[in-house]
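Q: What would this complex look like in 3D?
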Amino acid sequence: MDFYDDDETRSDNLRDEKQFALLRAILTDAKNNAPAYAKLYEGIDIDAIQDKTDLSKLPVLRKSDLTEMQASQPPLGGLTTKPAAEFTSLYMSPGPIFEPGSDAPDWWRFARALYAAGLRKGDVILNCFAYHLTPAGAMFESGAKAIGATVIAGGVGNTDQQIEAIKHLRPRAYAGTPDFLKVILDRADDAGADVSSIQVALVSGGALFPSMRQEYADRGITCLQCYGTADLGLVAYESAHSGAVGAGMIIDEGAIVEILRPGTGDPVPIGEVGEVTVTTLNTEYPLIRFATGDLSAMMDGASDCGRTNARIKGWMGRADQTAKIKGMFVHPAQVDRVVKRYKELSKARLVVSRSGASDVFTLHCESTSQDATLCEQIKQSIRDELKLSGDVALCECGSLKNDGIVIEDTRDYND
Amino acid sequence: MDFYDDDETRSDNLRDEKQFALLRAILTDAKNNAPAYAKLYEGIDIDAIQDKTDLSKLPVLRKSDLTEMQASQPPLGGLTTKPAAEFTSLYMSPGPIFEPGSDAPDWWRFARALYAAGLRKGDVILNCFAYHLTPAGAMFESGAKAIGATVIAGGVGNTDQQIEAIKHLRPRAYAGTPDFLKVILDRADDAGADVSSIQVALVSGGALFPSMRQEYADRGITCLQCYGTADLGLVAYESAHSGAVGAGMIIDEGAIVEILRPGTGDPVPIGEVGEVTVTTLNTEYPLIRFATGDLSAMMDGASDCGRTNARIKGWMGRADQTAKIKGMFVHPAQVDRVVKRYKELSKARLVVSRSGASDVFTLHCESTSQDATLCEQIKQSIRDELKLSGDVALCECGSLKNDGIVIEDTRDYND
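A: Here is my prediction, written as structure tokens for the whole assembly.
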């Protein structure tokens, strides 16, 4: 087997030990040099953070927090350990959210994903991620440089020119969104253009449907996914050996991933769907417990490709389930506060529907007790936390659907 | 005074000595390792190339040659000293013409232009050159990194997002085409957005009209131009000190510039308009006597900013003056062959017009003799070289318009 580095095959113990030693150094640096972390971690003993359980006590940073922090402390919210103008690059993603970038080798860590997809020194990659304002293009280019591959900065759109470039420069790989490759291949077919040089695709930033993966495979293109964000860089990746459907994504060695109950800071058990929350081991722009808003679940065991890190399932939807009920916004965090009031409750799902012209809802709670008094108490707690009245239904532990949904909106908006 | 390096203020003798020593090394390497140069320079004694006069004996490489060479020897025409897949990047410009790129520090040499525009470490630059397929964005980003500035990879278009980025990230400088800055400023005015952080603009890739430069100045923005191409990198630049109108562009220290009579390999005297032809001192992708198709003229003396290199005037039009006369293509090179047949002639201008429905033309020749016999002989030479009949008019030396035009087409195409 062939790995990008030894980190990929280290034992869980060694990984934890090394990652948490680095994390403590990063947290200490952040507390000293990044104003926002200085405030956020006031009174927290960094040296006591020895494992994931300790980590789970640190505050969660949400994408919405980031927007507010960047607005009140421009440009980067006080979350970096050096001034913005000391970074090589600055980017802007929709939100707007601003991100720093660097030309330090593989700063966003995508080299590991490219390597796992089978790409090597001497390969030519058509990089169809956007380079303008967003860091996506730069992220993959930086990773490609680290493995010694050559990049064609294709960017988005310009399908005919992409085909011209493929015909003449004969890249072996495509990097970009899952769907744009199909746009290129279909247009090339129509034009009778030879784009058969492309044998590998590393895709991200959108859903790769199994049918699409199969279609690429039928054309001789091995298509693998990776998962990352403009803020975090690489989070997880598929490996060519582990194959495709159901094999999951291996967590990057520079990231610590937790799956949290949406709206909370609490990790869910392995297998349960929740919000992907990531801690990056980046010394200049550390993001600690950054809740992505994406849903996924941890998988049992390790990949059969030999990489020992934990895996997550692919993207399973969005966690931002704020609903407007009777004119009031309800957040998953409010539901969580109701659940936390009772030791009997472990998990809940608020289902909103309509009765005539009125919004109604029921809070379904996994509970060790099915007592009617408990039910009435929970109703009162709902009134306290949500400023709304609703029903409560208690159910057996493990009986709620495992899809990460805390607020399910069943109202038909086409009435 | 403040210069990017000592090269900018060296004596002409020292510059020639250093540049030609480096050029000989590059030519030797190219002859040994770049197949196209091996063929082109067969039998040429590289060691004998000691100055510009020797250089002017080497063959000229035209943009059209490049297209043909790249088609017959893909992907880079055999003009590089290493394989395409050993470059960091590959690009495609309209033509299509393909260019290699590298993440070696300031590979395209734009740092010098940015520095001369007053940009320094710690400055933030909004880079509105395109990063997709073309190398323009990467060229300026690479230069900005070399001076320690921070780049916002703005790219082209997305005016509203560019304004968002300026408001939040407050770049001190804009780099991009001359006109797009005005689009941004006007839109920002309409939206009441504060984009006053921008104080410096380095523009390229289009005409900077004096009125536009003045408009920027009126807003407190110092706007300077530089000139380069996707193939060559930087060729010449303005300096902040030398000021604006009429000060010209200082030739880059990594380029040797000649001004040639269009269609020929012959340098014109200082002040005469001709085709900008550039030799880059690039060891991996040397372009030797690369005729850009752009017109300019050498200026007398040096810039008052203290930089000692020669200057060219700004962009003065295109040199590719191929015309179709009576259904036949006529190239400036054919006109040149007529001129070269007679020691009396120094320069000529073929003026095409229409007589009724027919194309007619007159070849105006600067001549030391006004003899009628000579006139008749030239007419015969025209028939030989152009396969067309036309008139000849002899005139005094120095009397033809100095605009680099060899074939002037006065036909009205709106008839």
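A: To summarize the key features: The two ends of chain B are 57 Å apart (CA to CA). Chain B is about 30% helix and 25% strand.
Q: Very helpful, thank you.
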